[in-house]
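Dear all,

This email documents one entry for the complex benchmark we are building for the journal club exercise. For each entry we list the sequence lines for every component of the assembly. Then comes the predicted three-dimensional structure of the complex as a token string, followed by one or two observations. Please use this as the template for your own entries, and keep the labels exactly as they appear.
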Amino acid sequence: MDEKTLKKDRLRYTKNSISSGLALLAILFNVFYFVSIYKSDVGNYYYNIKIGVSVIYNLLFMLFTFLCSEGVKKYSFGYSVTLVVVGLLQLVRINILPKQAHSTTVTISGAERLVMEDAQYNRVIIFLLISATFAIAGGVIGIIRNRTLTAYNKSLNK
Amino acid sequence: MAELRLQHLDKIYDNKVQAVFDFNLDVKDGELIVLVGPSGCGKSTTLRMVAGLEDITSGHLLLDGKDITQMPPKDRDIAMVFQNYALYGHMTVYENMAFSLNLRKENKNVIHQKVLAAAEILGLTDQLNKKPAQLSGGQRQRVAMGRAIVRTPKVFLFDEPLSNLDAKLRGSTRREILLLHKRLKATMLYVTHDQTEALTLADRIVCMSMGYVQQTGTPLELYDTPANLFVASFIGLPPMNFFDVTVSGTKLINNEFSVDLTKEQQDLLSSHEGKQITLGVRPEDICEGGNIDLKVFSNENLGQTTLVHGHIGKLRTTAKFRSWCNYKNGDNVKVSFTRMHFFDKETTNAIR
């Protein structure tokens, strides 16, 4: 067997730990993101339905991404695609809570101030971007490896 | 592969108990040595000293002429297969076999080739994606062997690898180990308390008792010419029968029987004239017909042979007849001894 074939053959017995690890990192950076948002001290700005949906989405995100991290370990195509979708949704989230909070002011103790200052905004955006990148990268690697393994198995069967 | 030399090895534990006394052994390249003996005789301790899992109190251990006495286990290039397999339950067979090579950070493709080759040898190719819990005991033991094989060590150590298997599986796995040894031509040290394993596997057997080496030799040497009473009683199934007899000219006599000696035997025992010695007779060396009375108390038919348990006088005796017998409790059978072993009563050493 040449190097290339060996690499493909290895897929039959080894787990896709890169994709799985990337998915877990995506969860970690999502945790950093919501911790950064929830610890804001901006009166009752966040006390509405949006933050409730955000909390539920964070829980769902972590659940699905964790399931994906297990699924992609076994080169599952479905879980890899799901991981890409979940990553794309992380990008969409930049435009919801962070962007709105960054352009809104609140009055606290008579002083008007931004709900989300530049520093905090930049931080949460970076966390979301990293989380999204890891999820998408994990998913894409999962898809590529799934395709490679499927093709290799087919060639073996022939 | 390699030559292993164990020179004057002693093992004294912190509580001052000495487990091994002056152990000497030269293992030739590609040789399969079996350490055999009852529980607590020091065979596993010796093996663990070779592996580096126990400190050597005194003596030297040489591998290919290099002193490895103080060398840490990971640097010894010796692989050990344990009785309880020691597999990682959360890893697949492939991952278990690749584990040690991954730790060494070897090239992934090289690891892959080594694991596949070992799996092929051991017939585990179809099991590579399974976890140990999904395998039978024999398959798990083969995985443990595979983990040792992939390292291509200089010496393989086996610590009672078949003890956890049932009788049938033990037989087949034993044959696999033998085939493996022939295929790899590896230097192997194998510990067991099962004499069948020792006799069938070994190029040479080291028989141990109470921390001392009792005899080292080929299986046939240990069976045919045991060095002392311990080896004679330990090797052979059913075990050898022993009788206290007195050397009296051309005969051996005791209260129950007398046996004529050949000229050679008379010469051998001439220095023991008038003294008591121990006569050893293997069950298969007792045959029907003769002048010794064997009073039967049980009869076990094994197909081609029959084990007849009884008493010669007051001495419990087992005979192995090469025919189908139907003796009943209380039957009196006339027997004779076709081959005898003589042991000094005081030293317990064989008289040669």
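Observations: The mean pLDDT of chain B is 93. The CA atoms of residues 196 and 237 of chain B lie 8 Å apart.
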